[in-house]
Amino acid sequence: MSRKFFQSKARKIKLLLLDVDGVLTDGSIIYDGSGQEVKAFNVRDGASIKWLQRAGIEVAILSGRNSKPVLVRAKELGIEKVLQSALDKLSAFENFLAETGYHPEELGFMGDDLHDLAVLKRVGFSACPKNAVLEVRNAVDYVCKAEGGKGAVREVAEIILRSQKKWKEITKRYYE
User: Fold this and answer.
1) Is the alpha carbon torsion for 131, 63, 72, 168 positive or negative?
2) Which residue, 24, 28, 64, 117, shows the most beta carbons closer than 10 Å to its own?
């Protein structure tokens, strides 16, 4: 896929939809001694989510699992649309479109595994971490250089912001 092609697709994105396990995290599921789930999130991914929001691009979560740490992280980042327990991600995605009024071409989605394929094929811009399964890597518009939970979301956020000519405006505050 040529750089120009995926940038033209990223230019239209109004909302970035993110899978959790394997995208926002490295895919590990960790339980503490009392059986509570613990997740590690990348701080740079979080910063880039805030940048997208400042640039007027919404961020939402679409996960097949139900996890309290995801709700905590979403609240911390100001992500209001969190769809969990979406075992049929395509149905959840279609309901999301109906509820929000977005068109598929206005959405980007990052996924990493087979259950993400149907949604990845429906959105305007699809991406995956470097360590996504082969079928996903072969189906998306952009394969990140970074792995899930290790800056892949940041990479995609930068592509969207740069392709929409919003990168300089978002980052200028750090140079002053």
Assistant:
1) positive
2) 24
Residue 1 has pLDDT above 80, yes or no: no
Whole-model pTM: value is 0.94
What CA–CA distance (Å, rounded) separates 28 from 125? 26
CA distances from 57 to 38, 54, 75, 85, 153 (A): 28, 7, 17, 24, 14
Q: What is the pLDDT of residues 44-60, one digit of tens each?
A: 999 999 999 999 999 99
Helix, strand, or coil (residue 107): strand
Six-digit token pair at 132?
């996504």
Q: With the CA atoms of 107, 110, 112 and 113 taken in that order, what torsion angle do they form, in degrees rounded to the nearest 10?
A: -20
Per residue in 117-151, pLDDT (tens digit) is: 999 999 999 999 999 999 999 999 999 999 999 99
Strand partners, 108: 16, 125
Using N-to-C axis directions, what is the helix angle for 43-54 and 68-77, rounded to 10°? 50
DSSP annotation of 25 = S
Q: Check if the beta carbon of residue 63 is closer than 8 Å to that of residue 112.
A: no
161 with 153: CB under 8 angstroms?
no
